[in-house]
DNA sequence: AATGAATGAGAGTTCATTCAT
DNA sequence: CATGAATGAACTCTCATTCAT
């Protein structure tokens, strides 16, 4: 009954959803715990019953994004298609999932430095694994000769992910291009830059 | 005499320098006015004598970055070299000046949303002009046929600037590559992505 | 079965033991109900099933101490030994039982003011009876002339009990002196101070 | 002018006085910062302008008591009177000054454990020096043979100071005995207990 | 008998800003 | 020009207690 109230979501789900929206809109520091609990329709005590701190909420958002992206990338990387197809699809997919979770991603890249040291280290470690898996695809293609080796693979990865992070700064759902179209274009740019 | 003290810098200069370093290291919200004045070796009264508010300090940092980048871009765009040379040099130069002013740039992209509405509008307008001038170069090349038209010019610009914004997240002065080398690689990637 | 678990103690006993240790170590205000129930291995609901409030736990500790001390004193006072022997034994015994229940005694003297008014009055009344019974021994000796009458009896009692309260501040079980030795010395000091 | 307001006391003095009274009446934990600033007629900001924390206020009270007692004891100990006179006067004086500063002393013995670890260590070190100076007097008399050596000197000191700490529990200014009378009696008890 | 989610009031602390000097 | 005392509102977080289950 009380679970059915407020849209059938549980209290921690509602809190996480409210925090995500507010953190994305206003930034972590500019969002008060009071705003979050009001948006979720609960009291402060309830928040601290489920989350140890405001920091914890942020960490939960990160965990969700990291898990999602890691799974998608694994999926593409493990395919047995030619490496250029695998990289292209991974490069496009990270754009689509970023746009589909634009709030989470905005928070991710804007508020990461607000995490405490040990949580930050953990997030960074996961992030690094993600980057390395992506870089491995680039290096594989460079070794096979299907990609140019003119640019070090890690710079290529940073180049592409730079544009992915930047999506939050300009992409709007009501804009001219759909998520898929943007993804296609950005993946194209990457593939063309890698042509030997 | 007091200007000669503390390295010969004026009080407002010292305040701005201290604020820049602290904002870049800790973020705008995490930096207190008290920290700034202590780092600058003055008192709060002095800060409020020269700057209307903490917000004003942030705005000054922005103004400095915007002015610098605008000037550099104008310089390259106005040259009468072939468009591919002009774009390549502009693309590389924005990387170098970003790295040379990495603190300012970190602040720029991380704390923009802390500005009040009217200042934000002003900054965004200047930023848009900058983007458009850059885009004009891409479009000029596309019209001439020296660049591929497969990707809309504004997406190309966002792709490149994405990687520029991202520099603050990974570039370290003590790293493997010099600013010039990174700039060369990133400009290369852009030019290769634009090959017809 | 659940009584046999956790060392065969009942839930209220476990709660009282946990509360006693924590109150003595950290003080009443610094100890949260959450800590108590965790230390006792039960939940908050269980605590509030057996005790009306956190205050009640404190009161139970007091009741235990008061009952114990009252009984011991009665035992010595009712003996038909000479008054100097009765007083000496009572004075030494209160030291030993205080040391043997040092946690309870620490709480008693440090947290008494946390009780509500009516419970406080009740505790103080019992405490006063205890003092008066002790004082009666001193006065009896003074009337007989075996003790000096230079100092009013109530001051003598406060003098001795002051040192008893103070035990919690310095006595450690691992120290140089056993409880019995300390008791002997303190009782000696009292008796010597009372020599005519 | 603003200094003349509120009785001519400075803001930090008023805060310290208010805190002392409230800590003595209600205990440290039961006294809120809000109560203190209201009693002092200032705002919370003012309190934190002068004191780093609520803890700091407590520490200031301690520093005042410690300084006072140390000075008085030094004064008596350095005299060239016979040791029994020096000890008697010191033992009586600590009672008088304790009664004259009963609020501070209550706080001292009841709330010491609320200090943070490093401040606590500092206070304890000063306290120990005080005890040792007192003990040295007892030992000197024991060596000369004017005091009995039946009880170890440190136990004697704890015995006396126990009764001093205890004063806060029963002494009232309106009571039967003046501070000087109580001091005389307690010093008498000590000296008689030390008779060979 | 026992759970644990949820409350709501209040805790200590921070901070940008003002203003008399 | 510059000081620094003082403000007042907002901040994150804690906690004893209740109640439906």
UniProtKB/TrEMBL annotation, chains A, B, C, D:
Residues 32-51 bind DNA. One of its GO terms (biological process) is negative regulation of DNA-templated transcription. It holds the Pfam family TetR_N. InterPro entries: DNA-bd_HTH_TetR-type_CS, Homeodomain-like_sf, HTH-type_TetR-like_transc_reg, HTH_TetR, KstR2_TetR_C, Tet_transcr_reg_TetR-rel_C_sf. This is TetR/AcrR family transcriptional regulator. The keyword Repressor applies. The keyword Membrane does not apply. Keywords: DNA-binding, Repressor, Transcription, Transcription regulation. Residues 9-69 form the HTH tetR-type domain. GO terms for molecular function: DNA-binding transcription factor activity; transcription cis-regulatory region binding. It comes from Streptomyces telluris.
């Amino acid at each position: 009954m009380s679970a059915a109230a407020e849209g059938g979501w549980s209290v921690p789900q509602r809190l996480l959803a409210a925090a995500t929206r507010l953190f994305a809109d206003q930034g972590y520091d500019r969002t008060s715990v009071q705003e979050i609990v009001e948006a979720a329709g609960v009291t402060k005590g309830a928040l601290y019953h489920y989350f140890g701190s405001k920091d914890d909420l942020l960490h939960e958002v990160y965990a969700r994004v990291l898990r999602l992206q890691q799974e998608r990338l694994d999926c593409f990387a493990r395919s047995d298609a030619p490496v250029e197809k695998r990289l292209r699809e991974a490069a496009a997919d990270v754009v689509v999932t970023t746009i589909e979770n634009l709030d989470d991603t905005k928070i991710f890249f804007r508020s990461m430095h607000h995490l405490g040291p040990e949580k930050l280290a953990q997030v960074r470690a996961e992030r690094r694994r993600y980057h390395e898996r992506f870089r491995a695809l680039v290096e594989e293609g460079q070794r096979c000769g299907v990609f140019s080796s003119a640019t070090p693979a890690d710079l290529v990865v940073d180049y592409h992910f730079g544009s992915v992070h930047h999506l939050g700064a300009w992409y709007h759902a009501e804009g001219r291009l759909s998520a898929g179209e943007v993804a296609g274009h950005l993946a194209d740019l990457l593939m063309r830059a890698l042509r030997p």
